[in-house]
Write a structure and sequence with these properties.
Distance between the termini: 94 Å
Strand content: under 5%
Helix content: 55-70%
CATH class of one domain: Mainly Alpha
Mean pLDDT: 79
CATH topology of one domain: Serine Threonine Protein Phosphatase 5, Tetratricopeptide repeat
CATH architecture of one domain: Alpha Horseshoe
Largest sheet: none
Structural class: mainly alpha
Radius of gyration: 27 Å
Length: 391
């Protein structure tokens, strides 16, 4: 009978408490984890848990941020601030379904206040659903903005204010992007896209994002000259070579007010520069991206494409061709390493390499390890800045 009771007790223990059959080291590890959880629950207040969450977010440690934020959410499951924070953490971790669940709960609790949850839901969804969420977010934003005394410029808003002109401009940009991409085939998509961008620029005339979107729209409407003008205005706020003529005070101000656009946005800027045949600035943008992350296939591919195009109209034709081969070979190797599935990109890379020729020389080491990136610049065309330094 005693043995039967013992077996029943064992069968009743499951999950984290079931340590039967584990090694002494694993049992100790589980006990320490459970103890740490209890200690966390007893040790931290809501305020302290959120402080720890922010601390880990600042260090891009989203897994630890999620642990502390979840504990805060367990204590206050209807706290809108915590729900918003947890939803954003889930998005950073790539857990779209969990983020969607959290933001929808926040919508249920507070449908007419707080625009951020609608903008995040718009990012999670696509096509008409995304548009609906973005439009609802705009409705909430504009209502909040209009409820405050009129103040010119987003910089004059206090931290407590819920909506700024920058927020509204960004929301209109999100609507415009939907019409440029997912809903581009819809009736009057072009007109609705332009209307949204125009509204974005009304709220923030110098917004790099809105200016670049207008450039994209104009290029898509086969108005390259007008598109180039908007693109250059956008680049002037963040591209170093276009800021040289500004005085130091203004430049310092721009560095605070106009941080670098997101990585993907700068890739788009490079594509537009290539389309506008402004190859030197396209190269500058792409080289900056490469310094941040040297394992993005599209950046290597675009650098190769730029050099290939420059070779056609430069006296240094062979030098540009060599640079193009080097960039494109790197793109091709990364394609296999990262298991990319963009077959159109790979096809274009191989087509350009075929046009360039000289692939036989590289065939012998195609299966070998990549050369260190710090040694790869010997094959590239020197920039004007490099030549100045050598002089």
């Amino acid at each position: 009978m005693g043995g039967q009771r013992k077996n029943r007790r064992r069968r009743g223990r499951t999950g984290a408490d079931d340590i039967t059959g584990l090694s002494p080291q694993d049992r100790m590890k589980i006990r320490m984890q459970n103890k740490a959880k209890k200690k966390t629950a007893d040790k931290y207040s809501i305020h302290q848990l959120l402080e720890k969450t922010e601390e880990y977010l600042d260090n891009f440690n989203f897994e630890m941020a999620q642990l502390f934020c979840q504990r805060a959410l367990d204590l206050e499951p209807d706290n809108l601030e915590i729900l918003d924070m947890m939803g954003n953490i889930c998005m950073e971790l790539g857990n779209g379904e969990k983020a969607k669940e959290i933001f929808l709960k926040a919508v249920h609790l507070s449908p007419d206040k707080g625009h951020a949850k609608y903008m995040c839901l718009g990012q999670i969804h696509c096509k008409e659903e995304a548009l609906q969420y973005f439009q609802k977010g705009l409705e909430v934003l504009i209502s909040a903005y209009q409820s405050h005394p009129k103040v010119s410029g987003a910089a004059n808003f206090s931290d407590e204010m819920e909506a700024t002109t920058k927020d509204i401009s960004t929301a209109f940009c999100s609507v415009a992007e939907i019409y440029l991409t997912d809903l581009c085939m819809e009736e009057e998509a072009g007109d609705k896209c332009k209307e949204a961008i125009t509204k974005a620029l009304e709220y923030e005339p110098s917004s790099p994002e809105a200016l670049q979107l207008m450039a994209s729209y104009l290029f898509s409407m086969e108005q390259p000259q007008e598109g180039k003008e908007y693109l250059m205005k956008s680049l002037a706020s963040w591209l170093p070579s276009l800021q040289k003529d500004k005085d130091e005070v203004q430049e310092a101000h721009d560095l605070v007010e106009s941080p670098l656009p997101p990585y993907e946005s700068r890739i788009t800027a490079a594509k537009l520069l290539i389309e506008a045949e402004v190859f030197e600035l396209a190269t500058e943008v792409l080289e900056g991206l490469l310094e941040e992350d040297d394992e993005v296939i599209q950046v290597w591919y675009l650098l190769g494409w730029v050099c290939y195009l420059q070779a056609k109209e430069s006296e240094e034709e062979e030098a540009f061709k060599d640079s193009a081969r080097t960039y494109l070979r790197k793109a091709k190797k990364l394609y296999g390493k990262l298991r990319c599935d963009d077959s159109a990109l790979l096809e274009h890379v191989e087509q350009i390499l075929g046009d360039l020729g000289g692939e036989e020389a590289a065939a012998g080491d195609s299966d070998g390890e990549d050369a260190p990136l710090e040694n790869i610049e010997d094959d590239f065309v020197p920039s004007s800045e490099d030549e100045a330094m050598e002089a």
